[in-house]
Input
Amino acid sequence: MAGNFGELVLVLGDLHIPQRASLIPEKFKRMLVPNKMQHVLCTGNIGSRQQYEELRNLAPNVHITAGDYEFNAPTFTSTANSDPSEATGSGSGNGPTSTPSAFPESKVITVGEFRIGLLHGHQIVPAADHSVLDMQRRLMDVDILIHEHNC
Output
């Protein structure tokens, strides 16, 4: 626990490092202190095995869903509670893959009293449609839905 504020959660996605950005900006990276937060929730499109490993080192609970442009991610046993930290390395991390991502399409995580749904958002058609997002939230039976592709 982080003081009286509950658990700290870092939410991020669409890093695309090194494909679209060379690195996380230094101002932001200084705040990414290992074990400062208890959870990392990532909506996918990490970009490389190196970024994947950096996320895994930030918090004891790291949850990642598949993006629409994913690197050749490490594989892990697919179960309802699969965690990327259980990954075993078959991915090369050298660019996108045409094969399905090893990360799940969606995931439900409980933080404190909240059920949080996590997905990239490329599955939502039309993109960012509030009624479709609300339906997805209800289907996942979550209090909070985190997604990308807002435009």
